[in-house]
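Why does residue order matter? Because the sequence determines the fold. Keep that principle in mind as you read this record.
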Amino acid sequence: MSKPIRIALGATVLARGMASDGHLDGIGVYTRELLRTLTQTGSELDVSPVVFGNKAMHIGDRTASALPLSFEASSAIAYLTHMSTPGADRIHREADLFHAPDHCIPRFRKTPVVASIMDVIPLTKPEFARSTLRRVKSTVFAHLACKAQHIVTISEYSAMEIEQVLGIPRQRITVTPLGVNSRYFEHATPAARVDLLNRYALSKPYFLFVGTLQARKNVERIVNAYERLPVGVQDAFDLVIAGRARPDMVGLTDRLLRARSQGCVKWIQYVPDADLPILMQSATSLVFPSLYEGFGLPVLEAFASRTPVITSNTTSLPEVAGGAAILVNPMAVEEISDAMQRVAQPAEQLNQMVERAYARARQFTWESTAALTLAAYRCVVA
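Structure:
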């Protein structure tokens, strides 16, 4: 029997999320599911989580070992000195490969590095990135990404951009689409739905947006589209915005607070993971006209929930939707509004689209993501 491939799996973002309030962003969920599914591959892999910051951290029942410095300090050293990230010798002794699934990419001379890059938004759309040291961070990120032996990304669209923007040859890039949590396929009981709707004071059918409130999510235009609906439709349907606002979204925050006080928009700033599937299943439609996505997992989660989806005809979203969603120009408020009015008046054609969407969601599993990732590992260590 051949020896297992020893994988040091970067878990810095995951550990931070679990150590705070337990709420994970997209990268945190991706890392958690990779850790879960890769450890189920049997004897072929030996996976050990690793974090930056000189402090071992707990991830469920596992303890992640620590590299000596924070990622920020480590990446600065690697970039400025062209030397390996501090702690490289220990990683070389203990692992055959380091996988950075969370954009915390080290630079090692002896140990090959696989880097997961969800998108290159900071490089192609800097207006959507956080402004603090944005240019410096983007420069260091690009440098470290290019030094990785192999890139894993989540859509053909992102692979194309990585090749064009970073100049990384396509043969060094593997596409591993994301998976859908099985909870979204589990049909909630009527009692569970009533309980959730009562807790969030949702007494009418509703259009739903889910995600962090940031500029590229296009929430302002969703609100504009809702307000453009005929009065009768607005009276019959609420608009529910579920997600926390980034600190730089003060204008949107003020608008949502005003709209919430007037009763026309429901803003739920935090929804526990356990509530999200029922919230999605109970919605009239997911409205997700994002300006830029490397993948767009909420689209598939809505598909699994048998909830109609309105999403953008740009970036990765048509690829993920696969012809099973209503596609709109995300810049055109009238198109978003017309699509909302269309799903408010169900027709047989819409039901057929929902069934196609459900079947499509079934194609995306975290086990498949892990299998494709393992194939990339094999190529690198070979």
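The first helix runs from residue 12 to 19.
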